[in-house]
Write a structure and sequence with these properties.
Length: 180
């Protein structure tokens, strides 16, 4: 199977933060036996993100997107993936409850209204709990294509990938490359 990684965030393009997720995910894809031919970094722009996702869908079976799942207006990954796949965004009550619990445990206690955006998911997607933040991960399947949406912060992405996504992808890709 062919995979492609798309890192979303203008902060990556500007060099404000290092894209360590690409290195980590590339290594994991290799261990899973996934062929990885392309990686992209795209800013927080709906039109450019749409083009990058459509291109990835044409050349890969699995698209792994990192970033753009936060509560701010420029976090567009989930919305663009839903649009490209022709799916509606629907409220996930489980994610909403987790957001409430997260803020009750935090210092702030009050949930900013823009955080409710993180409880929306493309219809029919698999929700992956985020045990280190408020943005859940998502697995979106449309026909033979799979989009995996992961939060950008490595302290959220890595445990989510290790605990949920790696086993999921291992079941999708039984052939594994090992190097000694």
């Amino acid at each position: 199977m062919v995979a492609e990684i798309i890192a979303v965030g203008t902060e990556l393009l500007l060099g404000n933060i290092l894209n360590s997720n690409a290195k980590y995910l590339s290594e994991k894809c290799a261990l899973l036996g996934l062929s990885l031919f392309h990686q992209s970094v795209v800013g927080d722009n709906e039109e450019r993100l749409t083009r990058v996702i459509k291109t990835a869908i044409d050349r890969a079976d699995i698209i792994i997107l990192t970033g753009g799942l936060g509560p701010t207006k420029d976090d567009l990954t989930k919305e663009v993936v839903a649009k490209v796949f022709g799916l509606k965004l629907v409220e996930d009550l489980h994610s909403k409850e987790r957001i409430e619990k997260y803020f009750k445990r935090s210092v702030h206690k009050v949930i900013p209204s823009n955080n409710w955006k993180q409880a929306l998911a493309p219809e029919g997607s698999v929700i992956i709990d985020n045990h280190n933040g408020t943005a859940p991960g998502l697995i979106v399947k449309e026909g033979a294509k799979i989009a995996i949406l992961l939060p950008g912060p490595p302290n959220e992405l890595i445990p989510m990938f290790e605990n949920d996504i790696y086993p999921y992808l291992k079941n999708q890709q039984p052939e594994v490359i090992s190097s000694s």
